[in-house]
Amino acid sequence: MSQPHSPATLVVGLGRPERTPGASVGPSVEFTSTFVRGGDNAYARFGNPTWSAFEEAIGTLEGGSALAFASGMAAVRAAVDLVAQGGSVLVPQHCYNGTTSLLQQLEDAGRLSVRRADIADTSAYIDAMDHVSMVWLESPTNPMLEVAELPTLIKAARESGVITVCDNTFATPLLQKPLELGADLVVHSATKYLSGHSDLLLGVTVTTNPELQQRLLTSRTLGGAIAGPMEAWLALRGLRTLHVRFERACDNAARLATRLAEHPVVERVRYPGFGAMIAIEVRGGAAAAEKVEQQVEVWLPATSLGGVESMVERRRRHASEPVTVPPQLLRLSVGIEDVEDLWEDLDQALSSSRAS
Ligand SMILES: *Cc1c(COP(=O)(O)O)cnc(C)c1O
C-alpha cells in the first residue's frame, strides 16, 4: 500500500514507534536531562525522542521539517531572530498581539525596524514588501479575521527574495499549507488547535529549507526555549483527534455565524467562511460586550482559543490590542460542544446584555 496522505489518517498514525513485536503503540515520555554516550541523543536541550515524535507528525502535516519550542512565542521569537541586525519586518496591521508586541520591543531597542500594512489589501501589502528582510503573514488575522491572499503574497515575496513566515495557528494544516505555496517558514502556537485541550503551551516551526532549519535548531539549543517532554507528549496525543475536533468546531462556527448575523444585538459578524474563529461586534459598546462575557454559562470567558471548549473574549480589554480593533468586538473560539447549547447560551447572554 502506498503511504496514506489523507490528514485524517496521518494525524492518527504519525509519530508512532516502529511496529516491532511487543513495542508500545504510542511513544513514551522520555524524562531525562541527558543520554548515555554513543547513541543518537546527547543532552536533552539538543533533542528528546518525545519531541521528535511530535515534530515528525507536524512536519509531515505541513510538508517540511519541524522543531518544537517551549511556546508559540518562543517559535515566533526564533523566526524573528532570523532577521539580521538592522533589518526590517513587514507585519500585518492586525496580527497576534504577542508578535506585534515583540516586534515593537525589538524596534524600540534598535534591533530591527517594523513596517505595518493591511494584509487583506493585497497590492498595499505587496508594495510594502519593498526592501524588507522578512514578510510576516497571518491569515485569518487575530482578532479581526481578515483573510490574506496567501498564494499571491507569497509569490510576490519570493520574487523579491524575502523570507516569508506564516503563522498558521488559526487555519491549521488541515485548511492551509503555506509551505506548499512557497513560504519559507510556518510557525504555530501548538497551544491552540494542534494540541486542542487548553492544557499546555507549545510552539513549532516548520520549514523546507535546510539552512533555516539549522539556524532555528541552533537558536533553540542556545536560546534554551525548549519544550517539556510532557507537553510534547500531550500535544501529540491531542493531535490524534485534530481532524475530528476541527471538523466539528468549523461546522459549529459556520452554523453560529449564520445565526449571529440575524441577531438583533449583533452589529457585525466577522467570519472568514472557514475555520472555527468568529468575531462579533455587539450593540451597546464595550460595556455590553463585557456583559456577554459575564452572562455566558457554557462558553468560557477566557483568553486563548483552539481548545475543545468554546471561549469568548472582548479583545480590547488588553491594553496591547490596537485601537483599530473595535471596543465592542468579542472574539469567539468555537469549540466542539453541541451547537444548540452554544447558540442558546450565546443568545441568552447577548439578549441580556441589552437590559441593564
Ligand atoms: C496564541 C498564539 C501565539 C502565541 O502562542 P503561545 O503558545 O501562547 O506562546 C502566536 N500566534 C497566534 C496566532 C496565536 O493565537
TrEMBL record:
It comes from the Bacteria. Its cofactor is pyridoxal 5'-phosphate. GO terms for biological process: cysteine biosynthetic process via cystathionine; transsulfuration. Gene3D superfamilies: Aspartate Aminotransferase, domain 1, Type I PLP-dependent aspartate aminotransferase-like (Major domain). It catalyses: L-methionine + H2O = methanethiol + 2-oxobutanoate + NH4(+); L-homocysteine + H2O = 2-oxobutanoate + hydrogen sulfide + NH4(+) + H(+). Its EC number is 4.4.1.2. Belongs to the trans-sulfuration enzymes family. This is homocysteine desulfhydrase.
